[in-house]
Amino acid sequence: MQESRDASRRLIIDFYDIDSLRYPTITKSVVRLFQLEPAGELTIGLDEMFQDYQCERQIVGLEWDPWSGYIVVAKTESAEDLVREIGAFIQSRFSR
User: Fold this and answer.
1) CB 7 within 8 A of CB 17
2) Confidence check: pLDDT of 22 > 80
3) Which domain of life is it from (predicted)?
4) Which residues pair with 50 in a beta bridge?
5) 3-state DSSP call for residue 41?
6) How many CA atoms lie less than 13 Å away from 42 in the CB half-sphere?
7) Within 13 Å, how many C-alpha atoms sit on residue 54's CB side?
8) Can you list the positions of beta strands (E) in 16-96?
9) Which helix (H) or strand (E) element contains residue 87?
10) What is the pLDDT of residues 25-73, one digit of tens each?
C-alpha cells in the first residue's frame, strides 16, 4: 500500500501487487461495506479499469492499471478520510 498525491493534489492509495482479475471482487466488497453508489459508468480499456462512486458528497475513484495496480482516489477533498478507510480495508483483506 502506497499513499501519494497526483498532479491535482488528490489523495491516492495504490496496491501495486493486486492484479486486474481481482478488481471486480475487491470493488464489490468495497462498495457493499462502505455503502457506495455509482457516480459514473465502469470504463474498461486495454490497460485500465475505473469507476467513480459516492457516499453523500464524497466521491472516490476505484481504479486499476498495470503500473499502480488497484487504486483508490479521493475525487473530492472531503473523501480523503474515506479513501484512507478503504485503503486500510483493502490492505487487511486483499493485499499480500
Assistant:
1) no
2) yes
3) Bacteria
4) 43, 63
5) coil
6) 8
7) 11
8) 37-38, 43-44, 49-55, 58-65, 69-74
9) helix 80-93
10) 999 999 999 999 999 999 999 999 999 999 999 999 999 999 999 999 9
Burial class (CB in 10 A: 0-12, 13-18, 19+), 90: buried
CA separation for the pair 67, 55 (Å, rounded): 27
pLDDT score of 96 more than 80:
no
Cα separation, 33 vs 28, in Å, equals 9
CATH number at residue 35: 3.30.160
Domain count, the chain: 1
Give, as one character, the DSSP assignment of residue 30: H
CA distance 10 to 43: 20
Q: Is the pTM of this model over 0.85?
A: yes
Judge contact between 26 and 70, C-beta under 8 A.
Answer: yes
